[in-house]
């Protein structure tokens, strides 16, 4: 199997995006960076015990979606995925595990019962699902409904995810498959609606004619539904009447999944850490800025968009006073007045990339600067600082797009506190944050707020954020070439 072919069908929904905390990559535990990678590793156990985190890496949440053919299983799954936009979700089709007919069988495909459990390679399905559940990536076969065969040249590579959805007519039939599921959903749609949809779909998408669809339905699909699919409905935790039309049921299911998955673990530990609500737009922008091949203008453009969102979110954490205005209709509108005593402080050099967004949101805002030398002296050397004289009376938005070890951040925050800024008046704005940096800053300054757009997996041996986006300042200011 050529490597390229596998890459070509790389699963988009499970791409290189790690917004969840991975305990296996949590290496740093003390409130300052360890002096060596080995000491970092050695401190893992202490950190986990300290923060009451579970010792095992989180297992993905597995959802089974069953129902008759054309009941709307795929449609329901796609709606769930759309609503779970801030989680990594992967959809696995039982259909991918159809055994595939020999040339001889394919000639008499009309006599083949595709609705019987034996038509699927269930052992292979169990192997794939078990691997995915344990966090490994898998190659899933690609099945062609037109010629009833598997594509032997390529696979669909599916990566580890937070949620795995397995859908298919018989996913509740085998007890071993059922036992891998955390939640079972049955899509219940009237038989006549299913048949009508199936005729339309199979003639349009699966290369069939109406007569063959009707013949197959009477001979195999309906009897198998009665013998295997319907009896498996009793295993369902949730039954969705009317499939994708039932928005109430789908919303309730999504809420349940979100509760099960919970917030980011670090937000539970540190209530002052805020990760902005993810959307496909935000994930798309992160995908672009993290791509090492993006051009500098595009990097700047999408970073600016993301930074603007972080800044707006950060401003939303400032205190406000009630204010009433009279509208042109003569009515009174009761709203709020912004907090006026503000200033920005950028940590040179990459923090300066966030100044424009701050200026765009807060007209005429004062912006101070701090330069900290990161190499040598364990990153604690303050080289330069220029801050507004009245900074102690202001709320401070501290700007640095990447929170790595937390050493520079702590140095900057220390300086602000020395200048008389109360800790709870500092909001630290990041684009991406490493869990190690969050621990480091939040342990030392528990009243300070951190607002970030994504929390990454961790730091590597060189204390660089992984997956991260490289040297932010160089990429933003075009000095990386
Ligand atoms: N609520 C719905 N309203 C109209 N058409 C639908 C609805 N749900 C599904 N369909 C259509 O019916 C066909 C079968 O739906 P699909 O979700 O693929 O079913 P399944 O995965 O259960 O076989 C598709 O062509 C789909 O677009
Ligand atoms: N070569 C094949 C394989 C399967 N089928 C039919 O597909 C149905 C399952 O897919 P759904 O998306 O409808 O769940 C199943 O009822 C098989 O009859 C086929 O026609 N040809
Ligand atoms: Mg389907």
UniProtKB/TrEMBL annotation:
<dbReference type="Pfam" id="PF14681">
    <property type="entry name" value="UPRTase"/>
</dbReference>
<keyword id="KW-0021">Allosteric enzyme</keyword>
<feature type="domain" description="Phosphoribosyltransferase">
    <location>
        <begin position="278"/>
        <end position="479"/>
    </location>
</feature>
<dbReference type="GO" id="GO:2000904">
    <property type="term" value="P:regulation of starch metabolic process"/>
</dbReference>
<dbReference type="GO" id="GO:0005525">
    <property type="term" value="F:GTP binding"/>
</dbReference>
<dbReference type="GO" id="GO:0044206">
    <property type="term" value="P:UMP salvage"/>
</dbReference>
<keyword id="KW-0547">Nucleotide-binding</keyword>
<comment type="similarity">
    <text>In the N-terminal section; belongs to the uridine kinase family.</text>
</comment>
<dbReference type="InterPro" id="IPR000836">
    <property type="entry name" value="PRTase_dom"/>
</dbReference>
<keyword id="KW-0342">GTP-binding</keyword>
<keyword id="KW-0511">Multifunctional enzyme</keyword>
<dbReference type="GO" id="GO:0004849">
    <property type="term" value="F:uridine kinase activity"/>
</dbReference>
<dbReference type="InterPro" id="IPR027417">
    <property type="entry name" value="P-loop_NTPase"/>
</dbReference>
<dbReference type="GO" id="GO:0005524">
    <property type="term" value="F:ATP binding"/>
</dbReference>
<dbReference type="InterPro" id="IPR000764">
    <property type="entry name" value="Uridine_kinase-like"/>
</dbReference>
<dbReference type="GO" id="GO:0016757">
    <property type="term" value="F:glycosyltransferase activity"/>
</dbReference>
<keyword id="KW-0418">Kinase</keyword>
<keyword id="KW-0067">ATP-binding</keyword>
<dbReference type="InterPro" id="IPR006083">
    <property type="entry name" value="PRK/URK"/>
</dbReference>
<comment type="pathway">
    <text>Pyrimidine metabolism; CTP biosynthesis via salvage pathway; CTP from cytidine: step 1/3.</text>
</comment>
<dbReference type="GO" id="GO:0009507">
    <property type="term" value="C:chloroplast"/>
</dbReference>
<keyword id="KW-0808">Transferase</keyword>
<keyword id="KW-0328">Glycosyltransferase</keyword>
<dbReference type="Pfam" id="PF00485">
    <property type="entry name" value="PRK"/>
</dbReference>
<comment type="pathway">
    <text>Pyrimidine metabolism; UMP biosynthesis via salvage pathway; UMP from uridine: step 1/1.</text>
</comment>
<comment type="similarity">
    <text>In the C-terminal section; belongs to the UPRTase family.</text>
</comment>
<protein>
    <recommendedName>
        <fullName>Uridine kinase</fullName>
        <ecNumber>2.7.1.48</ecNumber>
    </recommendedName>
</protein>
<feature type="domain" description="Phosphoribulokinase/uridine kinase">
    <location>
        <begin position="62"/>
        <end position="248"/>
    </location>
</feature>
<dbReference type="InterPro" id="IPR029057">
    <property type="entry name" value="PRTase-like"/>
</dbReference>
